[in-house]
Known about the structure:
Layout: H1 2-28, H2 33-43, H3 47-60, H4 99-120, H5 124-143, E1 170-171, H6 178-188, H7 191-198, H8 213-234, E2 239-240, H9 243-252, H10 263-285, H11 294-299, E3 301-309, E4 312-320, E5 323-326, H12 333-341, E6 342-344, H13 347-350, E7 359-366, E8 370-376, E9 378-381, E10 386-389, E11 399-401, H14 410-438, H15 449-460, H16 469-473, H17 497-501, H18 508-511, H19 529-565, E12 577-589, E13 592-601, E14 606-611, E15 614-617, H20 620-627, E16 634-643, H21 670-707, H22 721-740, H23 746-766, H24 780-786, H25 791-802, H26 811-826, H27 834-862, H28 866-884, H29 894-918, H30 921-943, H31 948-962, H32 971-985, H33 1005-1020
Parallel strand pairs: 1-2, 5-8
Antiparallel strand pairs: 3-4, 3-7, 6-7, 8-16, 9-10, 11-12, 12-13, 12-16, 13-14, 14-15
Helix pairs in contact: 1-2, 1-3, 1-4, 1-5, 2-3, 5-9, 8-9, 8-10, 8-21, 14-19, 15-19, 22-23, 23-24, 23-26, 24-25, 25-26, 27-28, 27-33, 28-29, 29-30, 29-31, 30-32
Amino acid sequence: GSVINTLLMIFLLQQHQQTLLNQLREVTGTTDVQLLQQALQVSNGDLGEAVAFLTEKNAKVPQQDETTYYQTSQVASDRYISVGSQADTNVIDLTGDDKDDLQRAIALSLEESNRAFRETGITDEEQAISRVLEASIAENKASLKRTHTEVWSDSPNPHDRKRIDNCPVGLKNVGNTCWFSAVIQSLFNLLEFQRLVLNYSPPARVHDLPRNQKEHRNLPFMQELRNLFSLMVGSKRKYVDPSRAVEILKDAFKSSESQQQDVSEFTHKLLDWLEDAFQMKAEEDREGEKPKNPMVELFYGRFLAVGVHEGKKFENTEMFGQYPLQVNGFKDLHECLEAAMIEGEIESLHSAENSARSGQEHWFTELPPVLTFELSRFEFNQALGRPEKIHNKLEFPSMLYMDRYMDRNREITRIKREEIRRLKEHLTLLQQRLERYLSYGSGPKRFPLADVLQYAMEFASSKPVCTSPVEDIDTSAPPGLCHSSGLASGPATAPSAAQQQRVPIHKPFTQSRLPPDLPMHPAPRHITEEELRVLEGCLHRWRSEVENDTRDLQGSITRIHRTIELMYSDKSMMQVPYRLHAVLVHEGQANAGHYWAYIYDPHQRCWMKYNDISVTKSSWEELVRDSFGGYRNASAYCLMYINDKKPFLTEEEFDKETGQILSGMDKLPPDLKQYVKEDNEQFDKEIEEWDIMQARKAQQEKLALATAQDPEYMEQPSPTNDSKHLQEDTERAISRAAAEQEERSPEALLNAAIKMEYGRLLRFAQEDTPVENDYRLQHIIVYFIQNQAPKKILERTLLTQFADRNLAFDERCKSIMNVARAKLDLIKPEEVNMDEYEIWHQDYRNFRETTILMVTGLELFQKTNYVEALMYLIYAYQYNKELLLKGLYRGHDEELLGHYRRECLLKLNEQAAAMFESGEEPEVTTGLGIMNELVVPCIPLLLVHDAVRDLLAVEDMRNRWCSYLGQEMESNLQEKLTDFLPKLLDCSTEIKSFHDPPKLPTYSTLELCERFSRIMAALGRVPTEGR
């Protein structure tokens, strides 16, 4: 037993060192294993110091040729978690028969590991990997202290946060924790993993004091993960807060640095902690047999490393978890896997010769139910001294057959690989031959040979059409003149010798003319019918031959491609199917970005997008666009496949007594049921308190309306400019009615005046006017008519106008006002629905408020005061959109408002970017403040409706800031940029808490109409493309 434990300890130590080698190589781009090991020795396992050592060394020493270095003890590729290695001076050969070497290795490993464990209670592996995570955790801890917390805060209305039916629950981003959300959601939706976590019970001895720091940390984390999973199962909330689980992660690793690490490091650590927690439980529950760890059984597999090192063959079994794959230089997942499974010169593996070459193959002997591939999309740019992201396109299938990589298929796979290699060689030759046909010629410009022959045939068969340019220009010239010499000679007789020797007269015009017999288009000068017939026959025959050869080559190439594609499609090589379960996506650059996940729901048979608090239905097409790479800055960095022959991984659990599927709260053990029940009760109470508060508010508003005078735009308590305008219209209608009406009774005059006023307003409503003259602003009745308000609403509104107390300046108006008031009092509740009446008037108030917001925002925009203009334009657009939902004439031009909202954000983005570029501390802080407080909260408003122009504007803003990642800048600016970018790149369309609406200025109807007319006329002078 002690020997097994000792060997296990060796494995863990070597596994840790190999993991560090992998990470160091990926970050720095250095492939020399000796150099990497030297860096780790010098830095004492500190990854940051090792990177600095290598960077400094590379700057001083010219880059050496890439060499492949293998130690006999390190038989696996340095890409994988494998049996680790000593420095080259302490190589211990574990593959030979020397028992002393084995004993020496055991003693050395035990001495080192026991010393570390005695001092800290944590193994070397834990200490070393924790250093890698420190910077990422520190970044997340720092993000909780941000001053601009409004970006991540909750909506005050709990109904906005209420879960709809059984929609999956999202996770709140509590400060650059989108990486946490993406990984946790992928694992949570593995129902077998979910069951393991929910039903986990801590060891009985946990009630005693924890024995070491590891238990002190892992067990509380396990409990918080159980709590989080239980809320994700049974919560009434749309999304839940993972802060307590995240805090344990953050508190475990502390660093002063602030940078975002690859999320795969977090996944490694998460699974390690879970493995440790389950191991403690397994050891307690075992009864004389070796304990089984469900985390190991679920996520870990084994492969066989078969190879030759300097002519010496070796074979060794290794364990692996997440399987790293290089992306650069490959077009699909199978190419990545093929390259990862074969390393170095492997011909000697299959040859009888005693070659000194070194190489190895990897063959899977046991695949885990959950097979995870890490896609290495980050590499260190030695020239720039910083990591860069690889945006290359990499395709991957929704169903992956792993048969070709299995050890049991080793021989047949080798045969097929050799056949593929032979086919690819033949394919290369055929493509070279085809290229000679498709790019024919010896000069810089080349053309398809079939086209060249066709052009030659067309040239040969062309008839020359000779038109003299002189005849075109000088039609009076006598016929028979010879123009080819450029001279005008005498009659067409044979010239004498004296004439031939005569010095020609210089005539610039005629001498510059083209020869008269030059064809209008290229054509043979002299060709006989016989020559043409033979040439056409040859060219036609040659062209047919070339086309046939080209077709044959293309057909052969297509058949070879098809043969290669189908090489592994026979039934015997499709027995190990793995279905794509989750794709974790990163958008951004190497040192900043946003994470989300696509997860397949087998019950709904669709893909779901998990983006922090937002969980939405998606599609394979959207997944491909965002995950394959090559499109914007988004690409997959982790693929999670599950064994398709093990449905228990994603199947729901059944009740053993009833046989019914367990769902919701029924899935939870008693302690978690109580936990979720208490949280749901708290949320119900929050909703109840909100509803009571809103009902009280509504009641207060209703009482205020009931006791108040008529609406302010209908009547004012004192003769303000607004009421004077309305009063003048009313008095004008009364005067016209008195002049035209024979019967002078107040009631008759009132009816006539109302009819005339309605007629006047109806003409306004029906008139086709320019955009700057909006009669809806002049009178509520115009608004009502255009929006087809009920007749009873119109009548009561007009009566209210004539019942204005400000009309009582003479007896006639006073009597009409009294009649109007009496009529209003006589209207029965069943005749006019007062709730509907109030709704129509409230809609008009909203229309006026929207107009004021729009006018104020556009005026500020014209004055280039974009900071103040933004909130007016944002709220004008939102209120206007709500109005337009009720009808086309309820609001203003949505495109115009959308344009200026978008332009204002772009202008602010430009201003903030310019401030950031200045590098001056006050300017940088102000610029980032503009982005955090104004621009970033508004981005979801542009994303939510998928409008093309809005999406392009967001893309422009993001690209502007992402472009800084490739530039040299001060470290403090780099930190600020790294802190800010995840917010900007957040793709969530969830509308988070927002600024309060700006205070509205008070405008009379006349003033509002004038300002509206003025600003709309000014906008009308902007060219269409400018708007």
